[in-house]
Amino acid sequence: MRALTATEGFEVERDLLVVVDDASLSPGQPRFRARGSAGGHNGLQSIEMALGTREYARLRIGVGGPPQGEDLTDWVLSGFEDSQDEDAVLNALPRLADGVELWARDGIEAAMNRYNMPLDDEG
Protein backbone atom coordinates (compact mmCIF):
# COMPACT_ATOMS: atom_id res chain seq x y z
CA MET A 1 0.00 0.00 0.00
CA ARG A 2 2.86 2.39 0.80
CA ALA A 3 4.40 1.94 -2.65
CA LEU A 4 1.07 2.81 -4.22
CA THR A 5 0.46 5.89 -2.12
CA ALA A 6 4.07 7.04 -2.63
CA THR A 7 3.70 6.98 -6.41
CA GLU A 8 4.22 10.43 -7.87
CA GLY A 9 0.91 12.05 -8.77
CA PHE A 10 -1.18 9.41 -6.97
CA GLU A 11 -4.12 10.83 -5.01
CA VAL A 12 -6.02 8.39 -2.80
CA GLU A 13 -9.29 10.33 -3.17
CA ARG A 14 -9.07 10.32 -6.97
CA ASP A 15 -7.06 7.26 -7.96
CA LEU A 16 -8.12 4.44 -5.62
CA LEU A 17 -11.31 2.40 -5.82
CA VAL A 18 -11.66 -0.38 -3.27
CA VAL A 19 -14.10 -3.16 -4.19
CA VAL A 20 -15.63 -5.21 -1.36
CA ASP A 21 -18.53 -7.51 -0.60
CA ASP A 22 -21.45 -6.21 1.46
CA ALA A 23 -23.82 -8.48 3.35
CA SER A 24 -26.27 -5.62 3.97
CA LEU A 25 -27.01 -5.24 0.24
CA SER A 26 -29.06 -7.59 -1.91
CA PRO A 27 -26.97 -9.96 -4.03
CA GLY A 28 -25.51 -8.12 -7.01
CA GLN A 29 -26.63 -4.66 -5.85
CA PRO A 30 -23.86 -2.06 -6.25
CA ARG A 31 -23.16 0.86 -3.94
CA PHE A 32 -20.48 3.34 -4.92
CA ARG A 33 -19.31 5.74 -2.20
CA ALA A 34 -16.75 8.54 -2.29
CA ARG A 35 -15.74 8.06 1.35
CA GLY A 36 -17.09 6.92 4.68
CA SER A 37 -16.65 4.63 7.60
CA ALA A 38 -15.76 0.97 7.40
CA GLY A 39 -19.20 0.16 8.78
CA GLY A 40 -17.87 -2.92 10.55
CA HIS A 41 -16.29 -4.33 7.38
CA ASN A 42 -12.95 -5.83 8.42
CA GLY A 43 -11.38 -5.38 4.99
CA LEU A 44 -12.28 -1.69 4.89
CA GLN A 45 -11.01 -1.24 8.45
CA SER A 46 -7.68 -2.71 7.40
CA ILE A 47 -7.45 -0.43 4.36
CA GLU A 48 -8.40 2.60 6.45
CA MET A 49 -5.63 1.77 8.92
CA ALA A 50 -3.07 1.32 6.12
CA LEU A 51 -4.05 4.56 4.37
CA GLY A 52 -4.63 6.59 7.52
CA THR A 53 -7.81 7.99 6.02
CA ARG A 54 -11.43 7.22 5.18
CA GLU A 55 -11.22 9.45 2.14
CA TYR A 56 -11.12 6.83 -0.60
CA ALA A 57 -13.75 5.61 -3.05
CA ARG A 58 -15.30 2.21 -2.62
CA LEU A 59 -17.65 -0.06 -4.49
CA ARG A 60 -19.64 -2.36 -2.26
CA ILE A 61 -21.19 -5.34 -4.03
CA GLY A 62 -24.15 -6.97 -2.34
CA VAL A 63 -23.88 -10.62 -1.40
CA GLY A 64 -26.94 -10.82 0.85
CA GLY A 65 -26.96 -11.50 4.56
CA PRO A 66 -26.43 -14.72 6.48
CA PRO A 67 -29.31 -16.86 7.66
CA GLN A 68 -30.35 -16.16 11.23
CA GLY A 69 -27.85 -17.58 13.67
CA GLU A 70 -25.00 -17.92 11.17
CA ASP A 71 -21.78 -16.00 11.81
CA LEU A 72 -21.29 -13.11 9.38
CA THR A 73 -17.57 -13.81 8.89
CA ASP A 74 -18.24 -17.46 8.07
CA TRP A 75 -21.03 -16.36 5.71
CA VAL A 76 -18.96 -13.95 3.61
CA LEU A 77 -15.93 -16.26 3.49
CA SER A 78 -17.89 -19.26 2.26
CA GLY A 79 -19.38 -19.98 -1.15
CA PHE A 80 -22.95 -19.08 -2.02
CA GLU A 81 -25.52 -21.44 -0.54
CA ASP A 82 -28.26 -20.17 -2.84
CA SER A 83 -27.64 -20.46 -6.58
CA GLN A 84 -30.01 -17.52 -7.20
CA ASP A 85 -27.79 -15.28 -5.07
CA GLU A 86 -24.70 -16.48 -6.92
CA ASP A 87 -26.42 -15.90 -10.27
CA ALA A 88 -27.44 -12.38 -9.20
CA VAL A 89 -23.83 -11.48 -8.39
CA LEU A 90 -22.41 -13.13 -11.52
CA ASN A 91 -25.03 -11.49 -13.74
CA ALA A 92 -24.21 -8.09 -12.21
CA LEU A 93 -20.48 -8.33 -12.98
CA PRO A 94 -20.56 -6.90 -16.53
CA ARG A 95 -22.60 -3.93 -15.30
CA LEU A 96 -20.28 -3.48 -12.32
CA ALA A 97 -17.29 -3.51 -14.68
CA ASP A 98 -19.00 -0.74 -16.65
CA GLY A 99 -19.39 1.15 -13.37
CA VAL A 100 -15.70 0.81 -12.60
CA GLU A 101 -14.87 2.03 -16.09
CA LEU A 102 -17.16 5.04 -15.57
CA TRP A 103 -15.45 5.75 -12.23
CA ALA A 104 -12.02 5.61 -13.90
CA ARG A 105 -13.10 7.90 -16.72
CA ASP A 106 -15.48 10.36 -15.04
CA GLY A 107 -15.01 9.98 -11.29
CA ILE A 108 -16.89 8.65 -8.30
CA GLU A 109 -19.80 11.13 -8.49
CA ALA A 110 -20.67 9.94 -11.99
CA ALA A 111 -20.55 6.31 -10.88
CA MET A 112 -22.69 7.04 -7.81
CA ASN A 113 -25.28 8.91 -9.86
CA ARG A 114 -25.60 6.14 -12.42
CA TYR A 115 -25.31 2.94 -10.36
CA ASN A 116 -26.56 3.59 -6.81
CA MET A 117 -30.07 2.25 -7.01
CA PRO A 118 -31.61 -1.16 -6.40
CA LEU A 119 -31.20 -3.53 -9.34
CA ASP A 120 -34.97 -3.90 -9.60
CA ASP A 121 -35.33 -0.16 -10.32
CA GLU A 122 -32.60 0.16 -12.93
CA GLY A 123 -34.60 -1.14 -15.85
Describe this structure in words.
- The protein has 123 residues and is α+β, with helices and mostly antiparallel strands.
- Helix content is 46%, strand content 13%.
- It has six helices and three strands, in the order ααββαβααα.
- It has helices at residues 2-5, 12-15, 42-51, 72-77, 83-106, 108-115; strands spanning 17-22, 30-33, 57-62.
- Strands 1-3-2 form a three-stranded mixed β-sheet.
- The chain is globular, with a radius of gyration of 15 Å.
- The mean pLDDT is 88.
SSE layout:
Blueprint: H1 2-5, H2 12-15, E1 17-22, E2 30-33, H3 42-51, E3 57-62, H4 72-77, H5 83-106, H6 108-115
Parallel strand pairs: 1-3
Antiparallel strand pairs: 2-3
Helix pairs in contact: 5-6
Please provide a brief summary of the model:
With 123 residues, the chain is of the alpha+beta class.
Q: Which terms would index this structure?
A:
123 residues, alpha+beta, Rossmann fold, three-stranded mixed β-sheet, 6 helices
CA gyration radius, whole angstroms: 15 Å
Strand percentage: 5-15%
Q: What is the count of helical runs?
A: 6
Number of individual domains: 1
Structural class: alpha+beta
